[in-house]
Amino acid sequence: KLDAGARGFSNTGDGVNAETTGAAGTALRAEANNATANIFIGANPKNLGANCTIDPSANLTCTGVITGGAALRSEHRNSRGERVIAYTPESATATIEDVGTARLAGGVANLRLDPSFAAMTDKRWYYVFLTPLGDTRGLYVSVKTPSGFQVRETERGRGNLEFDYRIVARPADASNDRLPPAATASR
Questions:
Q1: Is the pLDDT of residue 65 over 80?
Q2: How far is it between the farthest Cα atoms of the chain?
């Protein structure tokens, strides 16, 4: 039995149903007035322990998939202390990315993928995007393996310069679906 200020139960429908028609109203409010109290816990133990928790610091953790409407966004505080909104880029397939800076020596750079990042990828494909940070004839990826890649300067160049790189890979646990059909909304 739960020790609760309010409790709802039903064998056939909603245990608790909250609704408001007020323009500035709140249908359901959960407040935890203790530094160690969870704000919200939702669980379905009959479905492989499915649950969602909002912890005392307002961190949301769910065992299932979280989906959203239009562009996903997050709030940040900039260096001037102002709150701003940033939007998440969207992709036709599931991807994971890593970035870095490296240096050509004599026109060649051999880079190892970060082992933590490599362990997250499916090891079958990844893309590398290069941005030279100096004057060059051009750069290209000459070799790609599951553990790293080689960058060379074009036309047998022998340059010694830094470059930025961005790696885009498929996560190890992602399906190969490209733009899979969305579930029909029940509105």
A1: no
A2: 75
**Amino acid making up residue 184:** T
Amino acid in position 166? R
Whole-number Å distance between alpha carbons of 88 and 49: 29
Closest Cα to residue 104, out of 162, 167, 31? Answer: 162
Q: Helix and strand tally (H, E) in the chain?
A: 1, 11
- For the entire predicted model, the pTM comes to 0.63
Q: Is the dihedral of CA 87, 93, 98, 104 positive or negative?
A: negative
Helix (H, G, I), strand (E, B) or coil at 120: helix
Long-range CB contacts (< 8 A, 24+ apart) of 66-74?
none
Q: What is the pLDDT of residues 15-62, one digit of tens each?
A: 788 888 888 888 788 888 888 998 888 888 888 778 888 888 888 888
Q: 129: Cβ–Cβ under 8 A, 6 or more apart, which residues?
A: 165, 166, 167, 168
